[in-house]
């Protein structure tokens, strides 16, 4: 069964540039087009801190190309979680715009953002976040069930097959290993064929070998489905699997690496005072 959905763009239709997956931190932004999956325009996020404010993101502008696998890294407190929350519509920026596909989600009402997230954004969390009383199949279908639809049975079967869980559709989350649970979460994140999948430390709760398998699966989903993937991670090995890494420090994008090794990533983090 083909994994690539019918409406996916063939690989060879991608525009040919020297770095087709390179994000553009802070630099002059490319014109918005369908080849940009997520775009942040001067996004600032502040939090109240007693009489003061903490600035978690400082006028961040970047464009994440469609089909790319991007890792977000930076020292503790640099703004990675805040970036993820704002880019994924889980929280609203204090100022600036977040555009997913061609929709400015910062201009939507809270209800509309919730619907948009459900239909167009996938999430993978460190702690899997499966619903304990629903089966594997039901957990995977959940984003569509919440929207009043069901996945096409062929698409559901190919996803279950792709994450290696064929035959386990009727199991409950409590019967799964950590790696299996995360693979269910990945299938669930992909089921709506979202514009982008955000993952927050997706291998953080797994042992090294299982983490590698899950990482390999994410890489394969990016390649085979042309799925845009944005992963926040502390792990240079995870970042080295990505097409590019964006580094945050003190709420700003301070650099990027394209197709880096884990050693390149570690060296850059050391410079930033990880
Ligand atoms: N809800 C909040 N209220 C107040 N300050 C916050 C809140 N969330 C984050 N911050 C502050 O914003 C800054 C960025 O935090 P954020 O959690 O985004 O960083 P991070 O890079 O994800 O850190 P870590 O790697 O430790 O998870 C920090 O100074 C943090 O203390």
From TrEMBL:
<keyword id="KW-0813">Transport</keyword>
<dbReference type="InterPro" id="IPR017911">
    <property type="entry name" value="MacB-like_ATP-bd"/>
</dbReference>
<dbReference type="InterPro" id="IPR017871">
    <property type="entry name" value="ABC_transporter-like_CS"/>
</dbReference>
<dbReference type="GO" id="GO:0098796">
    <property type="term" value="C:membrane protein complex"/>
</dbReference>
<protein>
    <submittedName>
        <fullName>ABC transporter ATP-binding protein</fullName>
    </submittedName>
</protein>
<dbReference type="GO" id="GO:0005886">
    <property type="term" value="C:plasma membrane"/>
</dbReference>
<feature type="region of interest" description="Disordered">
    <location>
        <begin position="1"/>
        <end position="31"/>
    </location>
</feature>
<dbReference type="GO" id="GO:0022857">
    <property type="term" value="F:transmembrane transporter activity"/>
</dbReference>
<dbReference type="InterPro" id="IPR015854">
    <property type="entry name" value="ABC_transpr_LolD-like"/>
</dbReference>
<dbReference type="Pfam" id="PF00005">
    <property type="entry name" value="ABC_tran"/>
</dbReference>
<keyword id="KW-0067">ATP-binding</keyword>
<dbReference type="InterPro" id="IPR027417">
    <property type="entry name" value="P-loop_NTPase"/>
</dbReference>
<feature type="domain" description="ABC transporter">
    <location>
        <begin position="38"/>
        <end position="273"/>
    </location>
</feature>
<dbReference type="GO" id="GO:0005524">
    <property type="term" value="F:ATP binding"/>
</dbReference>
<dbReference type="InterPro" id="IPR003439">
    <property type="entry name" value="ABC_transporter-like_ATP-bd"/>
</dbReference>
<dbReference type="InterPro" id="IPR003593">
    <property type="entry name" value="AAA+_ATPase"/>
</dbReference>
<dbReference type="GO" id="GO:0016887">
    <property type="term" value="F:ATP hydrolysis activity"/>
</dbReference>
<keyword id="KW-0547">Nucleotide-binding</keyword>
